[in-house]
């Protein structure tokens, strides 16, 4: 058995094959009828399955033919529509100047449509941003109105302040002019005062000399004549000196006089001297 197992199946012979008990070669009529009935049943089932499958196949063929015809018609319509679209796209490209535009030159319509879709999305985003900005602008409108009103009020106040400043500047110029005039009047008064002082000193010296001459020279006049001239001259000189002293004391005590008053007093003193 080990040698039989070692050899291959092609090398085995009939003598080497294992021997089994013999099979019975005859059957009864009942078994044969049973087998025949079974075969007939299988044949009928196969025929029924064949008929059903044939019907299904026919239905599938009909449906597939109709579908194929419909698809052919759709394909024909799609091809015609594609041709028409291709013609319209070509015409539109020429009309829009895309053929001569270097931006779209050499690009397929598909790429151009994609770019246009991207631009459309960008435009939609920009619309949303514009809507938000418009809402913010509506919210900021009252604030802007208030700021404009405040600006108008500030401008009016600024104009008022400018007018006040101009008025104050005019007053300042007037005051400066008055101050200059007062300085000039003061200088004139000081000059007049100096002249008056000199004239008073000269008058004092003249009166002192006249008093000395009158006291030193004896005058003898007859009794019938009155010594009116010299006494009157001396009395006039003494009176003039006393008036000048009073005037000098009054000038020192009293406030400074105007130019007209000083000129009047100076003329009066000169008249008295004469």
Key attributes of the depicted protein:
274 residues; mainly alpha; 2 domains; 5 helices; 81% helix; disordered N terminus; coiled coil
Structure write-up:
Keywords: Coiled coil. Residues 168-180 have a biased composition (Low complexity). By secondary structure, this protein is an all-alpha fold. It folds into two domains: 28-106; 145-219 and 228-273, no CATH class. It has five helices and no strands. It has helices at 2-6, 29-96, 109-216, 228-253, 259-273.
Give a topology summary.
Elements: H1 2-6, H2 29-96, H3 109-216, H4 228-253, H5 259-273
Helix pairs in contact: 3-4, 3-5
Give a quick summary of the entry.
The chain has helices spanning 2-6, 29-96, 109-216, 228-253, 259-273. The chain has 274 residues and is mainly alpha-helical. Residues 1-6, 221-233 and 251-260 have low confidence and may be disordered.
Gyration radius, in Å: 75 Å
The best one-word shape is: rod-shaped
Total number of domains:
2
Order of helices and strands: HHHHH
Helix/strand class: mainly alpha
- What portion of residues belong to β-strands? under 5%
Beginning-to-end CA distance, first to last residue: 196 Å
The low-pLDDT segments are 1-6, 221-233, 251-260
Count of strand segments = 0
pLDDT averaged residue by residue: 76
DSSP helix fraction: over 70%
């Amino acid at each position: 058995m080990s040698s039989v197992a070692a050899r291959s199946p092609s090398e085995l012979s009939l003598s080497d094959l294992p021997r089994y008990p013999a099979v019975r070669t005859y059957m009864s009529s009942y078994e044969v009828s049973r087998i025949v009935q079974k075969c007939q049943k299988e044949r009928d089932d196969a025929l029924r399955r064949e008929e059903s499958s044939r019907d299904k196949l026919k239905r599938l063929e009909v449906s597939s033919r109709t579908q194929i015809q419909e698809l052919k018609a759709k394909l024909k319509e799609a091809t015609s529509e594609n041709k028409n679209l291709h013609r319209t796209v070509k015409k539109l490209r020429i009309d829009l100047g895309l053929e001569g535009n270097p931006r779209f030159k050499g690009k397929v319509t598909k790429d151009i449509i994609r770019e246009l879709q991207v631009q459309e999305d960008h435009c939609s985003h920009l619309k949303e941003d514009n809507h938000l900005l418009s809402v913010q602008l509506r919210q900021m409108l009252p604030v802007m109105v208030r700021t404009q009103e405040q600006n108008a009020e500030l401008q009016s106040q600024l104009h008022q302040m400018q007018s006040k400043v101009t008025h104050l500047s005019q007053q300042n110029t007037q005051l400066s002019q008055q101050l200059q005039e007062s300085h000039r009047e003061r200088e004139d008064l000081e000059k007049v005062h100096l002249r008056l002082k000199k004239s008073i000193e000269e008058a004092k010296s003249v009166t002192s000399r006249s008093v000395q001459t009158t006291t030193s020279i004896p005058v003898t006049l007859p009794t019938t004549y009155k010594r009116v001239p010299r006494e009157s001259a001396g009395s006039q000189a003494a009176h003039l000196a006393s008036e000048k002293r009073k005037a000098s004391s009054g000038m020192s005590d009293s406030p400074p006089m105007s130019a007209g008053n000083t000129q009047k007093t100076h003329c009066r003193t000169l008249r008295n001297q004469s």
